Amino acid sequence: MSIIVFGSINIDLVATVPRLPVAGETLLGDDFFKVSGGKGANQAVALARLGIPTQMVGRVGADNFGVELVNNLQTSGVQTNNIFVDETVSSGVAIIAVNHAGENQIIVIPGANGRVNQEDVERLSNLLAEATALLLQLEIPITAVVAAAKAARSANIQVILDPAPAPSNLPDELYSLVDIITPNEVEAAQLVGFPVDGEETAAIASGVLLQRGVKCAIVKLGAKGVFCATAEEKFFVPAFPVHAVDTVAAGDAFNGGLATALFEGLSLHQAVVWGAAAGALAATKPGAQTSLADRFTFDAFLQEKGVIRDK
Question: What is the spatial distance between Cα 20 and Cα 253, in angstroms, rounded to a whole number?
């Protein structure tokens, strides 16, 4: 069995800066590096490095970035047979500024990601018989996301949606197709229409998302922790204290840790703890996929923090 990730594959061009620039400002940076990213690819790498058989479905351009992106996924252990090389457009690019506190600003040029369509959904559908879950994000066209969620629901496959970048209006039908939705506080606020800045407002936002049809709402609050709600239970998981260097891909790492625990048959509570641990570890290193922990490092972190595996 495996987990399928359907989503974006990007090259990240990252500048480190003393502080984030304001509009119209030219700012001297400290450093620059290039790294593989894209929310879909990040989540696939997060899963594969934690030892989960992972299939990536998406698109890259017929350019050097595309070759590099696919090679890097393969190196991390991700199955890439269902990544389509689009001859008509460039690979996706994200331009990222990161300040010394680990905060970031990101500009995404979709490229091939913007061309993902029903043909890609059909390739994905062929994998569903051997899958336990489908991970989705919103850096590809929403029509393709909805179609993929419908296909997974028809096959009785768990759907985990990271609603990022969050639109002001997510299609109503998508909520009812989602088993677990995992917005951060900014995305949650965009979805529900009021500020989400802590456990109390996250609880209210989660209630709204449950009313819209999702089975489980998980609101990621960064250094404040994680709030989780289903029809049966509500709980808060504190964040693991770490020295944050770069929060890029921390949310993707969270989803990787969460889905890994569920794949291994652990409880929802344990899965949220694993997600929080994976996200915390990712924040301690720069870059997107370069920050994602392997299983040895992850297990050592859990042991160090006294997390006991249970079902």
Answer: 24
Residue that has been written with the tokens 């992106």 in this structure: 69
Residues contacting residue 48 through CB under 8 Å, at least 6 positions apart: 54, 76, 77, 78
The residues spanned by each domain of the chain are 2-9+38-90+113-304
Structure tokens at 249: 């891909």
pLDDT at 254: 97
- Per-residue pLDDT at 84: 98
Q: Which of 211, 184, 212 is nearest to 198 (CA)?
A: 184
Phi, then psi, of 135 in degrees rounded to 5: -100, 130
Per CATH, the number for 2-9+38-90+113-304 is: 3.40.1190.20
Helix or strand or coil: residue 14? strand
Tokens of 146: 């909805």
Given a cut of 70, the residues of the chain with pLDDT beneath it are 310-311
Catalytic residues: 252
